[in-house]
Each structure stands twice: as structure tokens, then as C-alpha cells.
Design a protein that fits this description.
The chain is of the alpha/beta class. The chain is 43% helix and 12% strand. The chain contains 13 helices and 10 strands. The mean pLDDT is 97. Residues 138, 178, 213, 240, 285 line the site of manganese (II) ion.
Length: 387
């Protein structure tokens, strides 16, 4: 049996919430607006702070530019800090402007490439004001038809654009490059996989790393292997956690495949990617299209914590002995034992011992916050994709 002390290492876990998870989202078929959704970045930060207040797990909120542009970032930063939050990763956006229809950092037209580079310079300026460490780049760049563009030329232009952005970063700032195998481009994507992302960040330098979005792989991909490899190479900078059944579904992390989340966290811990000094940020990238957003985020961070707890319980000595002895079934047994351990009662105790609600989902339902924002947040434009 294990005790809640076995879970002490969990105190070192911080999860970064995406500001866009609190705004309206949907599919290309329909965005269903919800009552109480934030109208500005301040309200998004307030919602993120509520998630942190009830879980003790999520003290950082990532911003998306231009969605989260404000006149006074120092004021947004103060507002966040007063709520016990810090502003985290700055996400660039080159996927919603007409100019980028055929590409952004890879575009064949030098002026359009420069426009995309300038947008990243603007993001770096924002980082200076928010105190953010990471600039996250995800590109929609790619082509739909064979022959549409020179895929090799696009790699060369990408390398050149990234180098210009990287040079602009401050000494304590990092660039994290996110890959995705398809969508919105359907024939080829310019950063489709971890190997391409790795090749680019390796060429840039030490402060360039890979961001692994768990929803950005072909079905059946062994994601924990990629985690192990990137950690081994010292190039895993960040996660975008979410889950998927089919494509990039952006569902609640751990919802579709809790076992996969466990296997990923086993490799994270094995490879030194866990904890505040690891340099790996645990970000979420999710959209709550039909469920309420704040409890959706609470559920998400609890799922990450729960699978981290199970991964921490893995008896690594026993696993190592079984592996060394070539005992296939015993090794698998040790791993499955950890996975099947119900850590929920211990986590409830762990939370209570830290002055947090034993059951954050129930605490939110009883909190009155949802009712209050639904009443107060009337008028104005709700945040959402494209807003
Ligand atoms: C993209 C990608 C990025 C995120 C946007 C909202 O698919 O995952 O990380 O910034 O969505
Ligand atoms: Mn992502």
C-alpha cells in the first residue's frame, strides 16, 4: 500500500492553462456560445485563477497573440499576479490572416515571410512585458496538392525565418516549435513530425526546443517513444496536452486514452522531464466545445495529476530487475500494477492536507463562481476563435 507521502513529488507539478480554453470554440460546423464566457484576457485570467484556486495545480496561463492583445500588458501581469498567477507561454498566430493562405514563415513571397517574422517580433515584445519564458510557434503552413509548391524550398525558407526569430529572443527566453502531421494543410505540412521540428531547433541553438502536442500524430503513433527520444536529446521543451479519438480533437486530456497518458508520464519521469527545474512545461491545449469550460479545465489538470501520481508509484527497481532478467511478463506486470492503482483517495487526502478542496469538481459546483460570471458577463464580445 502507498500513502499520500509517496505523492510528495506532486507538489512540484505546475500545469499551464491555455487562455483560449475559456473562450468559445467549436468545430467547422458550429461554435456553441456559452453563458459567462470571458470577454477579454482579464476575464480569461480570472477563470484560470479559479482553476488554480481549487486545484493548487495551475498557476500559469498561456496567451495567444493577437487573441489576447491588451493595451497594457503590465496591467494584465499585475492583475494575474494579484490572483496568484503568472503569464506563461506566448503563442503566435499565423493561421488566420488572408496573407497566409499559402504559408507564413515558409511563404515564397519575401514580404509575407517578413510579415510573419514581424508578428513573432511583436510576440517577443509582449514576452518582455509579461515576463514569459517561451515563444511557441505552431504553423498552419503546408500545401494541399502535390506540385503546389517546392517542399524543399519551403524548408529552407522556414529555417531562415526561424533563425531571424531566434536571434531576437532575450537570453532567458526560449523558442518552442510545435509539429502537426496534417490540417489545415492536407497534402504536406511544413513541420509535420518531431524529427523535422528537432532538425530545425537543433540548428537554431540551445534555447530552441520541441513542443509535443499529444493530438498531433497519426493514429497509433507511439507518443511515449517520442517523449523518451526528445528527453534523451535534451530537446523536449513543452507539452500541449489534450486527447483525441480521431484527429486533433482537443478533448480533455486523459479522456480518450488514460493508459496512453500514463505511459507518457512514465517516460517523462524516467527521462527527467518532471518538476519545476526540468525545463519541460506541462501545457494544456484544449477546447471545451460542449462542456463547461472552467470545470473542463479542472477535470483536465486533475487527470494529469492523477496519471502523474500513478507514474510516480511505478516500482522502478522491480521494473529494472524484471527487464534485466528478460522477464517479459513480470516487467509488464510491474508497469500495469502502477497503472491500475487507484490514487484518487490518496490525492483527495493530499489536497486536503494542503488546504485545498478534497474534490475540486464538487467544490466548483458549489462555489457560485459559474452563476456569478453568467450573471455578470453580459454585453461585450465573447472570446473565441478568430476573436
Ligand atoms: C493549434 C496548435 C497550437 C494552438 C492552436 C490554438 O492546433 O495546437 O498549439 O496554439 O491550435
Ligand atoms: Mn497545440
Amino acid at each position: 500500500m502507498f500513502t499520500s507521502q509517496d505523492l510528495d513529488a506532486l507538489a512540484d507539478q505546475s500545469i499551464e492553462l491555455p487562455s483560449w480554453a475559456f473562450g468559445n470554440s467549436g468545430t467547422r460546423f458550429r461554435v456553441f456560445p456559452q453563458a459567462g464566457v470571458p470577454r477579454d484576457p482579464f476575464e480569461k485570467v480570472a477563470d484560470a485563477a479559479k482553476v488554480h484556486e481549487l486545484t493548487g495545480l495551475a498557476p500559469i496561463v498561456a496567451l495567444h497573440i493577437p487573441w489576447d492583445l491588451v493595451e497594457d500588458f503590465a496591467a494584465l501581469r499585475r492583475y494575474a499576479e494579484d490572483l496568484g498567477m503568472t503569464l506563461g507561454t506566448i503563442n503566435s498566430n499565423t493561421f488566420q490572416d488572408d496573407a497566409y493562405k499559402l504559408g507564413s514563415l515558409t511563404h515564397s513571397d519575401r514580404r509575407i515571410r517578413q510579415q510573419a517574422i514581424d508578428h513573432h517580433f511583436q510576440c517577443i515584445d509582449v514576452m518582455g512585458q509579461t515576463g514569459s519564458r517561451d515563444l511557441k510557434i505552431w504553423l498552419a503552413d503546408g500545401t494541399n496538392y502535390p506540385g503546389q509548391d517546392d517542399i524543399r524550398g519551403r524548408q529552407d525558407r522556414l529555417a531562415d525565418s526561424l533563425a531571424k526569430i531566434y536571434q531576437r529572443l532575450g537570453e532567458d527566453q526560449r523558442l518552442v516549435l510545435e509539429y502537426k502531421f496534417f490540417e489545415p494543410a492536407f497534402y504536406h505540412t511544413d513541420v509535420p513530425d518531431w524529427g523535422t521540428a528537432y532538425a530545425h531547433v537543433e540548428a537554431l541553438g540551445e534555447r530552441a526546443l520541441v513542443c509535443l502536442d499529444t493530438g498531433h500524430h497519426a493514429p497509433g503513433t507511439n507518443i511515449e517513444f517520442i517523449v523518451a527520444q526528445l528527453l534523451r536529446l535534451g530537446k523536449l521543451g513543452a507539452f500541449d496536452f489534450n486527447s483525441r479519438f480521431y484527429a486533433d480533437d482537443d478533448l480533455i486530456v486523459g479522456a480518450a486514452d488514460p493508459f496512453q497518458l500514463f505511459r507518457i508520464l512514465v517516460e517523462v519521469i524516467r527521462g527527467g522531464g518532471f518538476g519545476s527545474t526540468s525545463g519541460v512545461s506541462f501545457m494544456l491545449d484544449q477546447c471545451h466545445n460542449i462542456e463547461k469550460k472552467i470545470p473542463g479545465q479542472i477535470r483536465s489538470v486533475l487527470n494529469v495529476q492523477e496519471m502523474t501520481a500513478r507514474a510516480l508509484l511505478l516500482d522502478r527497481a522491480a521494473l529494472g530487475s524484471a527487464q534485466d532478467a528478460g522477464d517479459v511478463l513480470a516487467a509488464n506486470d510491474v508497469l500495469m500494477d502502477a497503472f491500475y492503482t487507484d490514487v484518487r483517495p490518496a490525492l483527495a487526502e493530499w489536497r486536503a492536507s494542503r488546504g485545498l478542496p478534497a474534490n475540486p469538481m464538487a467544490a466548483y459546483a458549489a462555489d457560485g463562481y459559474q452563476e456569478r460570471i453568467e450573471l455578470e458577463r453580459v454585453g461585450g464580445a465573447q472570446a473565441g476563435w478568430g476573436a
